[in-house]
Write a structure and sequence with these properties.
The structure is a single chain. By secondary structure, this protein is α+β, with helices and mostly antiparallel strands. It folds into 2 domains: about 180 residues, no CATH class; about 60 residues. It has 4 helices and 12 strands; from the N terminus they run αβββββββαββαβββα. A 7-stranded mixed β-sheet has the order 8-7-6-5-4-1-12. A 3-stranded antiparallel β-sheet has the order 9-11-10, covered by helices on one side. The chain is elongated and about 125 Å long.
Length: about 260
């Protein structure tokens, strides 16, 4: 009597795919970034000096490699997909993918942060797999909120070495691509985004503390000088009041003598 293998149940057949084991990895290395103060922008408003934290983690296997970069902004809660760049290297197909299908969503806007993240991902891939091909993709239509936003997006991609092509005359449907990882540009605007090492941060804090101490000394000296001037002013006011009273007395006395 032969045994019949049981058929998988409908519940087992409809089980969702298991998440990638690297999906929920969190950053292991951190670095401080300085966003330089810039003139106010019409679309993004004021652009003051800010400091943000860059998180980094990477994993490698025989089939894949992953670099995940994330940026935390103090005092601001971001969605999971914001300020996040993932670079996947597929060693079986010798192909590298930059970012997710939803695009790179950066906050704060127009501060050079997006270009910095992309440059870091490109540099990481170029050092290891410069001969790999680049997986292109479609550009999300929702990113084109205005003509200025479209031009800024296209400039961002082209300056990093990607090619941007449009499939329609209205320039709405677009895609990006690149032939090889080695053709991409790993540079960014160092005047806008600066990487700070631990000793540099310590030196900045020490300098700031020294400046505060010097300012406090100056404030104390000014307060003492103001106190002296106030006392001198009170003395002068009393003297003037006495002179006025004496002058009024003498004037009254002269009037009394003249009328006698």
């Amino acid at each position: 009597m032969t045994e019949i293998d049981p058929q998988p149940s409908a519940h087992e057949a409809e089980q969702p795919p298991q998440p990638h084991p690297w999906e929920n990895l969190t950053a292991e290395q951190f670095q401080l970034l300085r966003l330089a103060p810039l003139p106010a922008d019409r679309s993004s408003g004021l652009r003051p000096l800010r400091f943000v934290r860059l998180g980094r983690i990477e994993r490698h296997s025989d089939e894949q490699s992953l670099l995940r970069l994330s940026v935390e902004v103090p005092g601001q809660r971001l969605r999971r997909e914001q300020n996040l760049l993932e670079v996947w290297a597929d060693h079986r197909n010798r192909e590298v993918r930059f970012g997710a299908d939803k695009g790179l969503q950066v906050e704060p806007l127009n501060r050079g942060l997006g270009r910095f993240l992309m440059a870091q991902g490109i540099a990481w891939a170029r050092q290891r797999w410069g001969s790999y091909s680049v997986e292109g993709g479609a550009l999300a239509v929702k990113d084109v909120l205005s003509e200025e936003a479209r031009q800024r997006r296209d400039h961002f991609l082209r300056i990093q070495g990607f090619e941007v092509e449009y499939q329609d005359l209205a320039q709405v449907k677009a895609s990006y691509s690149a032939s090889r990882v080695s053709t991409l540009n790993p540079e960014w605007n160092h005047d806008k985004v600066q990487q700070l090492e631990l000793l540099e941060c310590a030196a900045m804090l020490q300098q700031a503390d020294q400046n505060l101490h010097e300012q406090q000394v100056k404030i104390t000296k000014l307060e003492q000088r103001i106190g002296v001037l106030k006392r001198e002013d009170s003395g002068l006011r009393f003297t003037i009041a006495c002179l006025v009273a004496l002058a009024l007395f003498q004037a009254g006395l002269l009037i009394w003598i003249a009328t006698r």
